[in-house]
Each structure stands twice: as structure tokens, then as C-alpha cells.
Amino acid sequence: MKLYRASPQDGVAWITGGSSGIGRALAKELASAGYTVAVTAREGDPIDMLIAEAASLPGKIVSFPCDVSDEIRMADTIAAIEGRVGPIALAVFNAGAYIPMAGENMSVRKFRRTFEVNVLGVVNGLVPTVRSMQARGKGHVLLVGSISAWFGWPTTAAYGASKASLNVMAQALKYDFDKINIRIQVANPGFVDTPLLKQTAPSLPAMMPAGEAARRLFKGINSGGFEIAFPRRLVWGLKFASIMPQPVRHWLISTLTGWKSRPLSFGRKAPRKRTETADR
């Protein structure tokens, strides 16, 4: 039996973290393809403009606000989506938090918040969604990871570890999901041009606009394999680096990022304000 792949005729596309960045752009791509798109973001995140922009598209966008770290509300949100607009055929778990953290300035709070959103925020939606998909005999799930999942980068001790968790989670679940006709994919995008990334790291290689990243995700959802990773020129280099001997990779990353010359006070001088994004 050919493994299921979602289509607009089968039901709703649900995106978490859809108020900005990749999530927002992907919501419009899916609506352009005819999907009814349920967008989940935190209360107060700007969704009205997105809904208005999609008014002329073949599909439509509907808002279902929720904090993904709230297990009970996430289950209620899924039930509301399926009760009001239809069965979830495609679930894109995109919501995420990036809190930069230097080794000399770690905190339990930063680790906890990152994993609450990036890992448990996925689990809170994945478990009830897959339960419904299994009852229908088909479904399609996409977990949005990151290229930082492949090995450690400076300041990504929490973020990279959380995205590595999603990659391993998807790999482990695929064995059983294949048997119950639920396609699972993991996306590991490179650097995407969003206000958050410009603020935290203004100069990064192979930066791409959010719209282009969303188009590549959409293409991968429609025809891609288990992993969707882009841009290719960055992916090839990082995949090669991931198999290097660890001392060589540490030296290379430290040199390329200029981290060797950074003062130890980097973490202590950074603003105390938490840096988060609703979608990576």
C-alpha cells in the first residue's frame, strides 16, 4: 500500500506557530493550494492580517489561538478544529522558541522553556492528532526541526538539543506510523530571514526569505521524502561536517563562527530579555 500523502480534498491543514516567519508564509502557500488552514499561535499574535491576505485565495485561513505548551488546551484546540472546519489531514508542528545561551551563562529556565515549546509543544499536539488520524486510517505529519539538530553550535545548547530531539522522535515514530498509514516527515531548514534571526545573528550564510523557505517546505510536503532539508549548498557542507572527527569539527565551527576570539563575558553581557519566536 502506498503511504498516504495529504491533499486539500481530504481535510484541514493545521499549522502551529503560524503568525510570522515560515509558519505564516506556509499558511498562505497551503491556502493557495486550496487547503482550509487552521493556524495556531499564542493569544495576541497577529493573525487577522494573514486571514485578510488569504481572502482571495482558493482556500482559507482560520485562527485557533493556543499556547502549544498547554497540554489540555492543545487537545481542546484539535477537537475544535475537527468539530468546526473538518478532519486534520496535514499537521505541521512549526511553533518553536529560540533562546540563545552561552556556556558560561546557562540557566535551567532557558532549557525548560525551550523544551516546553519545542519538544513538549509538539508532543502536546502530536499525540491527540495522531489518535484521530489513526481512527480515520490515514494522516500526514511534519515536524519542523533545524540544521542545528545535526551537531552543536555556539549558543544552541538548548535549541539544537530540542531540534535533535524532534529528528530522533520522527525517526523512531516512522517505523510504526508507516504501518498505520500516517506519513511523518521532518524539516531541517537553514537560516531564514526573519526579524528574530536578524536581531540575534545578522550575518549568516545562505540566508533565504521566509517565502522561499515556505515554498520549499510545501514542495517537500507534496513530493519529498522523510527529511526536507534546504538550502542544498548549505546542507551538503553541514552533512559533511557532521561526519568529521569531532575535534576537527569543533575547530572548524569555532573558527568559522569566530567563537574562539569571543570574550567569555559574551553570555553575561547579552540582554536578559528572553528571545523567542512563535515559529522557529
Quick recap:
The protein is an alpha/beta fold and 280 residues long. The protein has helices at residues 21-32, 48-53, 71-84, 108-118, 120-136, 159-179, 195-200, 210-223, 232-242, 246-256, 266-269, and strands at 12-16, 36-40, 60-63, 88-93, 139-144, 182-189, 192-193, 208-209, 227-230. The chain has a single domain, classed as 3-Layer(aba) Sandwich (Rossmann fold), CATH 3.40.50.720.
Describe this entry's structure for a reader.
- It is a single chain.
- With 280 residues, this protein is of the alpha/beta class.
- The chain has a single domain (8-269), classed as NAD(P)-binding Rossmann-like Domain (Rossmann fold, 3-Layer(aba) Sandwich), CATH 3.40.50.
- Helices cover 45% and strands 15% of the residues.
- It has eleven helices and nine strands.
- The chain has a seven-stranded parallel β-sheet, sandwiched between helices. The chain has a two-stranded parallel ribbon with strand order 7-8.
- Strand 1, helix 1 and strand 2 (36-40) form a beta-alpha-beta unit.
- Helix 1 packs across helix 8, helix 3 packs parallel to helix 5 and helix 4 (108-118) packs parallel to helix 6 (159-179).
- The longest helix is centred in the middle third of the chain and has 21 residues, at 159-179.
- The radius of gyration is 19 Å and the shape is globular.
Sheet bearing the most strands, described? 7 strands, parallel
Return the domain count: 1
| Mean pLDDT across residues | 90
Shape annotation: globular
- State the distance separating the first and last CA atoms: 34 Å
Helix proportion range: 40-55%
Radius of gyration, CA atoms, in whole angstroms = 19 Å
Please name the fourth-level CATH homologous superfamily: NAD(P)-binding Rossmann-like Domain
Class based on secondary structure composition and strand pairing? alpha/beta
- The CATH architecture assignment turns out to be 3-Layer(aba) Sandwich
